[in-house]
Write a structure and sequence with these properties.
The structure is a homodimer. Chain A is of the alpha/beta class. Chain A has a domain at 436-536: ANL, C-terminal domain (GMP Synthetase, Chain A, domain 3, 2-Layer Sandwich), CATH 3.30.300.30. In chain A, 31% of the residues lie in helices and 24% in strands. Chain A has 17 helices and 26 strands. In chain A, the strands form five sheets. Chain A has a nine-stranded mixed sheet with strand order 2-1-11-10-12-13-14-15-16, sandwiched between helices. The first copy, chain A, has a seven-stranded mixed sheet with strand order 7-6-5-3-4-8-9, sandwiched between helices. In chain A, strand 8 and strand 9 (190-195) form a beta hairpin. In chain A, helix 2 crosses helix 3 and helix 7 packs across helix 9 (234-241). The first copy, chain A, starts with 9 loop residues before the first helix and ends in a 17-residue tail after the last helix. Chains A, B: Belongs to the ATP-dependent AMP-binding enzyme family. Chains A, B: One of its GO terms (biological process) is fatty acid metabolic process. Chains A, B: Residues 15-397 form the AMP-dependent synthetase/ligase domain. Chains A, B: Keywords: Fatty acid metabolism, Ligase, Lipid metabolism.
């Protein structure tokens, strides 16, 4: 047998405690900033492990969190998996019935919960679904009055009697270490389990320049919530590098973020685009020294080129656009510039940076059409992105139905429709379920929406494919016009606008005016509702005309 | 089961070919520089795999190389392991009987050999030892006359008929991928096998800043031979990053290196200290533009502080001192400065940089005394360095005797005696077999030698521990004086010099004058010979005096 020691998370903790004992972990709380060192962190993680063990938690048991970004949540990141249990981070923004489903599905035994989120959790507690839950632990030094959870204790009491050293077990690489559920718009959430090895590999993959480029001198502030795929793995990678952590706590405002960057010397932060738009606007109006900030990782949804440009021009900050999925632990691509691209005109650099980027070393991808053939890398042809690699899951937890549909061998079918340009940059053009398949060609509903929403008289717009006898599907646009808009003129202008920008056969067969685009629980456009309503046809003013045929090329 | 796709080398090759198709691999040959791209490289690697398969090489078979640093050797790095075979890189500097032993032990089926090394190999071929070898492949486009190897073909003919695509197998992580033998001064060489997973983990560990800090824009020239633990993994990590490769070919002179740096824009290079001393001296005398060079990885033996200083002050090049072993694939520590150390006075920075450095993320270490207790990290107390982790082997190939001695559970006992300072920097003070154990304390033979060799009248010096009834061992120094030295005066001066620099009981009990220090095949001092001769006592002029007692503290 050829071999070495297992890939597990614990040596990252050990190294940070020994080599960077004085480096800090800073947390914003309701009471102000809390700070301690890796040396203290290491001791508290051991205490947590001891307390879990005393509470009967053992090999393979699931421990859930229902928390924002702070040091106690971070303590569960190493404490739970390193003692052999599995950390299940629950998204507190989910509707109650999803929370019930995933707690029951995961059979969580303990739930750690923030004081501010306790009411939400208490509202979701349902005796059947929470049957496996033996206790709640509130992330505070005392249990708030009328917390509505039982049995319940507070975190500091929970760990108080445990020693600050723990006899860590030697774990298998396959040991389940983490778990997240994807929150699809349809059906029940699907659980993704992370083994020790997957989290180890993801950590190592995000450290280098080809990943997120993290070194010991960095000060890293994850704004992306720690319940979103482990805050993109940053709590692990920051520790592995021996860098300083800054956790912004619940619901940080742009002012909170600007202050943390200035006061703690943040060099890198990460979150969804809206957060950074908010920060840009704040910085326009206020004096704040964010000169320590070198780069921002943007993911979750597409980063507008304007955000990338503004950070570069106004604040000398590089925006690194990244793409990932719960199934990828989550990072898959990062939009680094390639050698020589520094010399391109700024706008061309922003074009590249606004794409989802280059696949990380260690992963493989293919982009396939409906027949399973790979499409060429020319920046134009669409296909579904398939990915595989050491931090890409090969199955969902107890979901043979989804496994059948979403995997092909060890390839994950991501459900993202993308182009890849000649330089290898991936760009998402649509979700596979939303792309419109017309006459053998694919039409991006997303690109149509972006184009239509740029019209001054359009408040909201969404485009879906509707069944068509001859062409399989044809696009139909649903428009919420601004008040006072001339609907007939708008309709003609929108068709003209699309025909001008895209192949003529991309133009919607019908433009339907509605009062509001239906939304999902998380605020995204809910195309499923529209599709159902359209089948009902009550919403449609006209009927689908036999328009000019899509190209058969 | 929780899992993802296996960790194997092939996706690194795939990614470089697809994302960096035009990036170059440059080789210095007898005929000048050869260059091609990753796209071509990928095709040639597939050809090699096909040719190996046609030659009957399959799952788990060993394929050996006997080569310097060039593109064809690099082709074997991905071609051999990715088709399921195991790459065994043989050190051509070994004595014939060691070559015979390891070829027989590894049961190599094909040996790739450089034209310039063919005579050496032909001289070592022995029918019994080479019984497993079915053919030799000369790394050239034709077989030289009178090559003395049979059956033999040339590399270009070997791969010519194979297609430039290969149906790569899905390999297990445990699949043996590489093999190197350690060349100890005593006993037979010990084989270390690298699994696909170990090489994957080592590659990922060396990419980040905490490792060797390799990015796509780098141009990397491994001067360390590719038969020395895979040139410290650089061919793999350079490919994973999509960086440019520069291979300096056989026996490059300082002038060759300076030219390659200048002409190819080398940003990083790596090798043993003597190479860089040679380059420094060359640069003192010649005009060469080495401004592209950002850093040099020095390993293999201790880098003198003066080399680090000269590169910094004269050429603005960072020297990164690294420590590794065949058993570690090989990188274990790198002497990066920690956050804040940039502000230290230059001399203090050089002090840190001259140490072996900080353990890489993912590994664990302990430093233990004779009783197995960990010694404190105070920069003074000695202990043997033990290491474990995902790229540290847990056994030698078919050597239960050595496994018993050199491992404790999954810990590798490195045989290096080190101190660790308060900042966590490891410094090697001796080899475990050379350290002198006197009165319960350890004396570093290496530090005594360095001190003694600084005396103007000393040409060579080595210190060994000799058995002593009361103190277990006592130091005895063997000196080759420069001609004309006053031996009696020198003896007294050396004892005074040691007593001045170290605890008084470190002073050698006896100073013995000899004509030459015995050397091993690779030019290192052979203390074993001295120990045997000292037992014989014929060399010793006096007898061991009952000197002042070592401290019992």
């Amino acid at each position: 047998m050829v071999g070495a020691t297992n890939q597990t998370l614990r040596p990252f903790l050990w190294r940070a405690g020994k080599l960077y004992p004085d480096r800090e972990i800073v947390s914003r709380t309701a009471e102000g900033l809390e700070r301690y060192t890796y040396a203290e962190y290491e001791g508290r993680v051991a205490q947590l492990a001891g307390a879990l063990s005393d509470a009967g938690i053992g090999d393979g048991d699931r421990v859930a969190t229902f928390c924002w970004n702070h040091n106690r949540h971070f303590e569960t990141y190493f404490g739970v998996p390193s003692m052999g249990a599995q950390l299940h981070t629950i998204n507190p923004l989910l509707p109650d019935h999803h929370i019930q489903y995933i707690v029951e599905n995961a059979a969580d035994r303990i739930v750690f919960v923030d004081p501010s989120l306790a009411p939400k959790l208490a509202g979701a507690v349902d005796e059947d679904a929470f049957d496996s839950v033996e206790q709640f632990v509130v992330m505070a030094s005392a249990v708030p009055d009328d917390v509505g959870l039982s049995p319940v204790t507070d975190y500091e009491s929970f760990i108080a009697d445990a020693p600050d050293e723990y006899d860590w077990p030697d774990l298998s690489e396959d040991q389940p270490a983490g778990m997240c559920y994807t929150s699809g718009t349809t059906g029940q959430p699907k659980g993704v389990e992370y083994s020790q090895q997957m989290l180890w590999a993801h950590t190592m993959a995000t450290l280098p320049e080809s990943g997120l480029d993290i070194g010991a001198e960095d000060v890293i502030m994850p704004v992306v919530p720690m319940f979103h795929v482990n805050a993109w793995g940053l709590p692990f990678s920051t520790t592995a590098a021996g860098a300083k952590h800054v956790y912004p706590g619940p619901s940080p405002t742009p002012e909170d973020l600007a202050k943390l960057i200035e006061e703690e010397g943040v060099t890198m932060t990460a979150g969804v685009p809206t957060v950074w738009l908010g920060l840009l606007d704040y910085l326009d109006e206020h004096d704040a020294d964010v000169s320590s900030l070198e780069r921002i990782i943007i993911g979750g949804s597409a980063a507008p080129k304007s955000v990338i440009r503004r950070f570069d021009e106004e604040h000398d900050v590089d925006v690194l656009h990244a793409w990932g999925m719960t199934e990828l632990s989550p990072v898959g691509t990062v939009a680094h510039l390639k050698p020589g691209m520094d010399d391109l005109p700024a706008e061309e650099q922003y074009e590249k940076r606004a794409k989802q980027g280059l696949l990380a070393p260690g992963l493989e991808m293919r982009v396939v059409d409906d027949d399973g053939n790979e499409v060429p890398w020319n920046g134009e042809e669409f296909g579904e992105l398939w990915v595989r690699g050491p931090w890409v899951t090969t199955e969902y937890f107890e979901r043979p139905d989804a496994n059948e549909e979403d995997f092909e061998g060890n390839w994950l079918k991501t459900g993202d429709v993308v182009t890849v340009d000649e330089d290898g940059y991936v760009q998402i053009v649509d979700r596979a379920k939303d792309v419109i398949k017309s006459g053998g060609e694919w039409i991006s509903s997303l690109e149509l929406e972006n184009s239509i929403m740029a019209h001054d008289d359009v408040a909201e717009a969404t485009v879906i494919g509707v069944p068509h006898e001859r062409w399989q599907e044809r696009p139909v646009a649903f428009i919420v016009p601004k008040s006072g808009a001339d609907r007939d003129a708008l309709k003609a202008e929108l068709v003209a606008l699309v025909e001008d920008e895209f192949p003529k056969w991309w133009a919607p067969d019908e433009v339907v005016f509605i009062d509001e685009v239906p939304k999902t629980a998380t605020g995204k456009f809910d195309k499923k509702v529209l599709r159902d309503q359209y089948d009902d046809s009550s919403l449609i003013e006209g009927k689908t005309p036999d328009t000019e045929a899509p190209s058969d090329e």
